[in-house]
Write a structure and sequence with these properties.
elongated, 27% strand, alpha+beta, 5-stranded antiparallel sheet, 20 strands
């Protein structure tokens, strides 16, 4: 489904053995009751490099999980192609794709031990005759018997070595004989991860694997997944709704909305330079404040009667935009509580949340009555109804046109040491 002369496909084939490429991929479901077909994925083209950890984010119903199911072979695309390395796989059965999926619900077999859950995928992936299956089953049944009474199986012996390696890596070696009902949520999630790892797949697919865990366990398991992926170097697609997971786990983030790719980049690229208003207000918690502004002279913006300076990359673009009405975006940490001056924005405090290391203040601007959020010192007295004055960081403004597209987007900023390291692809 796609010519070998297509430049995007050529690019896919340079990625390595386990690079992934979605080429003009679409997925629609047939109409019901006279309605139109339901388009879930729309002409999506996306390249994931060999060994990369890519996080997929977007609102509910945007197509994230459907994309994973298409990759796994649980759904068939309506058009387009999926490549793993240089091999088109969209018409292959799931078992032929060498991908492993970790589900939100763990999907463990309740009647099997941890040991047998870890080895289940390995057993299913190997062709065996009926006699070999009987021999392997007898080996598992008699493995605890005295040596003269136990039956050996070279296949099962190799499988058990692999299972023990995975169990040790995930600290499950003391739990191998337990059933899933005897495990905690975190232990179940590790078993689900281990079952995927044991197969040594080309690609890991993870569909919100931490959503059922409490906050503390989610943090420790998140670190474990990142460490394991770094050690294994396996190409990984990870779906999440969690902002912390998205910003801290992936080499890059892909933002989807209504089945379309909105932006692809490193976490800090998306946070600092969103490509449109949707990304600006989806990435970041709390999201970017967006205010109606007019471009004025001398590198300034007008917000109501207030004239606000702009510095940095966007300042060079303002002369050509003078007089235009735009949307001005600014992050909560780029607004500071300051003395009352002609430039600063007066606002009344509506609500305050003290989070220990910081305080999130929701204010209503006197100019226009717009609600905005500000990060402030936790010791600041910000009682509801009190008056504050806000100073906007001149380099913090981001501008968007009437259609919501970013204006004067610069080249991607240099990676900071706070970002995850990209895999060595050279």
């Amino acid at each position: 489904m796609g010519s070998t002369t297509n430049p995007r496909i050529v690019q896919c084939r340079r990625l390595g053995l386990a690079g992934v490429c979605f080429e003009a991929l679409s997925k629609s479901y047939p109409p019901r009751g006279g309605s139109d077909p339901v388009e879930v994925i729309r002409e999506l083209s996306l390249t994931i490099e060999d060994g990369e950890f890519l996080v997929l984010v977007g609102p509910s119903g945007c197509g994230k999980s459907t994309l994973l199911r298409l990759m796994a072979g649980l759904e068939t695309p309506s058009s387009g192609e999926i490549f793993i390395g240089d091999h088109p796989v969209s018409r292959l059965r799931p078992a032929q794709r060498n991908v492993a999926m970790v589900f939100q619900s763990y999907a463990l077999y309740p009647h099997l031990s941890v040991r047998d859950n870890l080895g289940f995928g390995l057993r299913r992936s190997r062709q065996r005759t009926v006699l070999q299956q009987i021999q392997d089953q007898l080996h598992r049944t008699t493995r605890r018997f005295p040596q003269p009474l136990s039956l050996s199986s070279p296949r099962e012996a190799r499988l058990e070595i692999r299972v023990n390696e995975v169990a040790e890596a995930l600290e499950l070696d003391q739990l191998l004989d337990r059933r899933p009902k005897e495990l905690s949520g975190g232990q179940k999630q590790r078993v689900a991860l281990g079952r995927a790892m044991a197969r040594q797949p080309d690609v890991f697919l993870m569909d919100e694997p931490l959503s059922n865990l409490d906050a503390k366990l989610r943090g420790s398991t998140r670190t474990r997944i990142v460490d394991l992926q770094r050690q294994l170097g396996t190409t990984t697609l990870y779906v999440t709704h969690d902002q912390v997971e998205a910003m801290t786990m992936g080499h890059r983030i892909a933002v989807l909305n209504q089945g379309r790719l909105q932006q692809l980049g490193t976490p800090m690229e998306l946070y600092r330079w969103p490509s449109n208003l949707f990304v600006a207000q989806f990435i970041g918690s709390p999201p970017m404040n967006v205010l109606p502004v007019t471009v004025a002279s001398a590198g300034t913006l007008l917000l109501g009667e207030r004239r606000l300076p702009v510095e940095g990359v966007l300042a060079d673009a303002l002369p050509a935009l003078e007089g235009q009405s735009l949307n001005g975006g600014i992050r909560p940490e780029q607004l500071r509580i300051a003395p009352a001056t002609n430039r600063n924005l007066p606002a009344d405090v509506s609500h305050s949340e003290v989070l220990g290391n910081e305080q999130l203040i929701t204010c209503r601007l006197l100019d226009g009555g717009h609600l905005i959020q500000v990060r402030a010192d936790p010791d600041l007295d910000a009682t509801p109804g009190s008056r504050v004055h806000l100073e906007a960081e001149p380099t913090g403004w981001r501008l968007f046109d009437r259609l919501g597209e970013a204006i004067a987007r610069p080249h991607p900023p240099r990676s900071s040491e706070n970002e995850p390291l990209l895999p060595n692809l050279g």
